[in-house]
Protein 1
Amino acid sequence: MNPGTPPAPEERASATGLLRALALYIEARGRLLHIEGQEAGSRLSNLTGMFMLALTAFVIGWMLATPALVWIIAESNGWHWTHVALAGAGIHLFLGLLLLAGLKARLRGMQLFEESFNQFRRDREWLASNKNN
């Protein structure tokens, strides 16, 4: 094909067909992503709701059992109940700080969508190498 002459009808038809196939491919991938996103959101919201209910049940149960446990320990050892309650609070605060430190360390190293970003990086490298050819 000469740069000064218009493309032949066959070349225009093949380019149009390629663009149409590409658009249909992208549309299909977008629809699939949309459907899977809705399913994932529904599943995650159900799991989150169940987790919150379970956590609430555990917290309420622990709040009801703690005074009785403090009383039992204080009575069996002859200690004052405030000393037992303060020791229990100290143990819980120490465990909470340890868990927060572990959470902070995990959040620092966490990478979301790592494979997607790696795939985008590979795509950019492939496009750059094809431009040079």
Protein 2
Amino acid sequence: MLVVAEAAVLLGVKSGRVHALIESGALPSRFATRDEIAQLLSLGRVRGVPGTGIRLVPRYAVEAAQHRPGRGWRKGRSRKPKDAQA
């Protein structure tokens, strides 16, 4: 299980985008238990606990999201069809 900040680094997005994916249902998550929070704090993976709790994202979901196409048009790809002549 990864915390949201770790998932954001792996996906190459900001943590707000990860939260948006969680809210839309595209990325599954759950809240950490007290034992998990204690372990995360002792390992230094989180600095503190917000009042809303810590969300954990399964590693398999992050790996699956890495292979999804990104938003917008890919850089370096022409928008004109190959058959069209200007």
Protein 3
Amino acid sequence: MTDLPADLTLTLPEWDAFLARLYERDDRLDLRAGDATYPESETVDAYVLSGHAEALQSAEVDGDLWGTLEDIEEEAGSEAQAWAKICAFYRDRGCVLLRVTGTEEPEEWIFSAALLRRLGLLD
């Protein structure tokens, strides 16, 4: 049995620094290289990053909680139950929950472990 990656936690400043290190070109998300310059169109913010997430719960970006729950063919009686079922579904498939602390509202994102490894957040 393969060990599942642990959840990750970033502070808000760490999250902002992480976003600043990313660029997107031709729908591929990657890390910026050293002192190279990148066009403004390749800048990654939370909205751009959301296109690479499996699911998310964010004050800044609408993650369509109920649509995601429907996609995984689950039902829930509350947003908290819905998010718990979504997290369980993706964790069972080797995805990682990334929490951002220091925000007024919950900021949680689910990514594939492979993507987080490529982006330097997992060993």
Protein 4
Amino acid sequence: MALAAAPVAVQPANATPALSANDRRLVDLADAYEALDRRCNEHTAAHRYDHTSETDDEFDVLTTGFGPLEEECAVTPADSLVGVIAKARLCLSPTARGCADNEHAFSIADDLCRLQAMGGLHV
């Protein structure tokens, strides 16, 4: 009597691993931040030669959107390198680099140290 082989679940090579809720949120925040940064750059390019108090006010309204995204990113713990990389994406923005606030850098460092201590940092 031959034994049937147990089925093996094979995941397609291009399948994306499931993300935790925190990592998914961090990726979404990074996407939103990059979209806002693009809108700010587009606004600046469109009004390069027509600076008015109205266009400056429009830009100020746009840039107020960065704070809440940055704050939520900083307080959301990453569960994997995907989340840490999402946090790091915020730091790539020229708009972010122009700020003196280092909450993101500290948050990334905290996550890396925590993940390493938990044995969850796999490269």
